[in-house]
Description:
Number of helices: 1
Low-confidence stretches: 122-127
Largest sheet: 4 strands, antiparallel
Strand order of the largest sheet: 3-4-5-6
Amino acid sequence: FFQDIRIYDVSDVENPRRLQIPAEVEAHMRMLAQSIWLESKILYVLRTPSFGICHLHVIDVSDLGNLRVLASIDAAQSHTFRKQGDRIYIAFGNPQSFDAGLQVINVADPSKPFVEATYGPLSSYLETGISVAVYGNAIYALRSEKFTYRSWIQVHDRRDLAAAPIVVDLPQWANSMAVGANLLFITQGAVGVEVF
């Protein structure tokens, strides 16, 4: 239940070796680590230390003997995020009120991330963010309700995050999605993979 992040040296694939993490860095990597993204020796960790707001931690892993936390910022509660360019996109939602949204965090300077935009109210602990994908000027946020198994996609315009998204209802609970070549692939329970 309490997930943390572990780092392994896999230079010898047959004998992976777990690396020790300094206590001051480990504190930012344990307790409900939801999702991670590694790019250019910077590790982004989305973590929920308790019910409510998540935290996004930015960790420099360029020197494994000297890991450093560059920054931490409050973020919308979700289980997943996507990084593209200088921005992190977090899909979030509240199944009790059917509100769902998207938060964009600018990480152009990894040591000074800031919330650039938020569409929709921040979620309660009943978050429904399943997946987020970015393609061209569109941001696709896949949402699913935990108790009714209703799913939908919100399509946001990257150029105008204040604009209301296009909402597309799906016939079944959705698990994940991928987008590319002007096609959107969605896994949906017994339906299998749907292509839009």
